[in-house]
Amino acid sequence: MMATNLNSHYYFSREVSKGMIKRGYGKILMTGSIHSEVAMSELPLSAYATTKGGIKMMTKALATEWAKYGITVNAIGPAYFGSEMTQAVINDANFLNVVKMRCPMGRVGKEGELDGAVLYFVSDASSYTTGQLLCIDGGWTAI
Questions:
Q1: Which end of the chain is more exposed for a tag (fewer CB within 10 A), N or C?
Q2: 26: pLDDT confidence band, cut at 50, 70 and 90?
Q3: What is the 3 state secondary structure string of the chain?
């Protein structure tokens, strides 16, 4: 889990930043999670949450180190969205009850609901935004 969720982001960012530094411009977007911000007693997530918390701090650290080169580093923090990895959990009635209790919108994310945040962070609209984790979570991290 450390290799997939954390180390891969670091090594990829390190390599692509070389060209970005030469050009004096770049955009890096990490994939965090709501579990970069919150834990959850209903599922055994300690290892996962540890890696996603690391993404949050790596985003901040790289943002501060590379801002002088014109590189922004940000992250999105999705809640639960249907995917190959999450579909079994999302289809579980007990988990859906947890979502209804913990998420103010009472549902998982829908296809397309991450698009606006991703487009913002990879476009020039975010030229003065760096080191941020934006949770797209139906209010999950607001409570």
A1: C
A2: very high
A3: CHHHHHHHHHHHHHHHHHHHHHHCCEEEEEECCHHHCCCCCCCCCHHHHHHHHHHHHHHHHHHHHHHHHCEEEEEEEECCECCCCCHHHHCCHHHHHHHHHHCCCCCCECCCCCHHHHHHHHCHHHCCCCCCEEEECCCHHHC
Catalytic (active site) residue 48: yes
Choosing from 10, 25, 48, 120, the catalytic residue is: 48
Please give the share of the chain, as a percent, with pLDDT higher than 90.
Answer: 89
Torsion over CA: 86, 9, 44, 106 (sign): negative
Cα end-to-end span (Å), the chain: 27
Question: Token pair of 36, please?
Answer: 């970069």
Structure-token pair, residue 3: 């290799």
